[in-house]
Design a protein that fits this description.
Elements (H helix, E strand, L loop, with lengths): L3 E2 L9 H12 L16 H17 L7 E6 L2 H13 L5 E6 L2 H10 L4 E7 L21 E4 L1 E2 L4 E2 L10 E4 L16 E5 L10 E6 L16 H6 L9 H16 L2 H22 L3 E3 L10 E6 L5 H10 L2 E2 L10 E4 L6 H17 L1
Parallel strand pairs: 1-13, 3-4, 3-5, 5-8, 8-9
Antiparallel strand pairs: 2-10, 6-7, 9-10, 11-12, 12-14
Helix pairs in contact: 1-6, 2-6, 3-4, 7-9, 8-9
The structure holds pyridoxal-5'-phosphate.
């Protein structure tokens, strides 16, 4: 029986996407060939890549606005290095908003290329909030943000207005809500949270910000080379790209980002209401900074842990254990999660209260 999967990533995808992906592995487009055994230069796969790139821009409302969408190897973590490699000249400075483990990792890579300024940090409180007062040098090459902090359960709800290019790691909330995406110059996301299997990252970049560092860039790390190669400079991760395309089609067919946001807000509201109501649980994040994607919470009495764990496991729930740097629990409610799964968790929390 299929589990209620609250895993933070790799994570849930729509059931129909699993089925369509499985079918393509066996027989792609009734071709008598598996998706895994055809040339990436074949007509059928080039069509997949073209549609995936176009649909990413369409969902974000960024068609014909000077952006390029790419599907690249190396996950979000390689982007941590590709960003400064492509955008940060020697003797230049980049500004990073330090809101969690991933933001720290991104800034660390940038220090290999130039100076890094921390625009603000919530490290003082184990990253349980989003800093609102930020100091960004007007001469910085870019500001780097993490829209959703997967580990700490915080999410930026209102984005800082700056005059320099904005780079945003949207790994764990890509395609989950409506935003004016034209305010960003560089959006990237590892696929394995909201979009597809591990092995590919979506990069959406405004072409006009590239080619300004005066630096020679190894081909595989050079965004302009990837754009020129139409995201096929080398063999792309074909299966991960195809499965991401299936998810994007699913999002589009189910009302686009507006409808996805509505579903996601309903799920989060249901769970946070129970965390706040139930005296046996405590949220680790308060107020508007709470993530709609990843809800982090702890038990008010840790001695009850074994009993709670047994209850949710018996209810066919999986992947609820929190990240070691926060402890407790984390319910990841990505795009593909149904509200019925969240209701199952809420029912378990109520039952736990009754039994305690
Ligand atoms: C998971 C995650 C990453 C790391 O992704 P990889 O694809 O494993 O490199 C980076 N940033 C955020 C916000 C994440 O959630």
């Amino acid at each position: 029986m299929k589990k209620h999967n609250f895993s933070s990533g790799p994570s849930i995808l729509p059931q129909e996407v699993f089925e369509q992906a499985a079918e393509a592995v066996l027989d792609f487009n009734n071709s008598g060939l598996s998706l895994l055994e055809i040339s990436h230069r074949s007509k059928d796969f080039v069509a997949v890549m073209d549609e995936a790139r176009a649909l990413a821009l369409e969902l974000l409302g960024l068609e014909n606005k000077g952006y390029q969408a790419l599907f690249l190897h190396g996950g979000a973590s390689l982007q941590f290095a590709m960003i400064p490699y492509n955008l940060l000249g020697a003797n230049q400075k980049a500004s990073y908003l330090e809101t969690g483990t991933w933001a720290v990792a991104a800034a660390k890579e940038a220090r290999l290329f130039g100076e890094v300024e921390i625009a603000a940090s919530s490290k003082d409180a184990n990253f349980n909030y989003i800093p609102k007062e930020i100091g960004v040098s007007p001469d910085a090459s870019y500001l780097h943000l993490t829209s959703n902090n997967t580990i700490f359960g915080t999410q930026i709800q209102s984005f800082p207005e700056v005059t320099i290019p904005v780079v945003c790691d949207m790994s764990s909330d890509i395609f989950s809500r409506e935003l004016d995406f034209s305010k960003f110059d560089y959006i990237y996301a590892g696929a394995q949270k909201n979009m597809g299997p591990a092995g590919v990252a979506l990069v959406v970049v405004k072409e006009s910000i590239l080619g300004k560092t005066g630096r020679e860039i190894p081909s595989m790390l050079d965004l302009q080379k990837h754009i020129k190669g139409e995201s096929m400079y080398n063999t792309p991760p074909c299966f991960a790209v195809y499965t991401s395309l299936l998810t994007m089609r699913w999002i589009k067919n189910n009302g686009g980002l507006a409808a996805a946001e509505k579903r996601n807000r309903e799920k989060a509201a249901l769970l946070y209401a129970e965390i706040d109501r139930n005296p046996l649980f405590k949220s680790t994040v308060q107020g508007e900074d709470r993530s709609v994607m990843n809800a982090t919470f702890v038990l008010t009495d840790e001695r009850l842990q074994e009993r709670f764990d047994a209850l949710w496991k018996a209810a066919n729930i999986s992947g609820l254990t929190g990240h070691r740097s926060v402890g407790g629990y984390r319910a990841s409610m990505y795009n593909a999660m149904k509200i019925e799964s969240v209701q199952t968790l809420v029912d378990v929390m109520k039952e736990f209260e009754k039994q305690a």
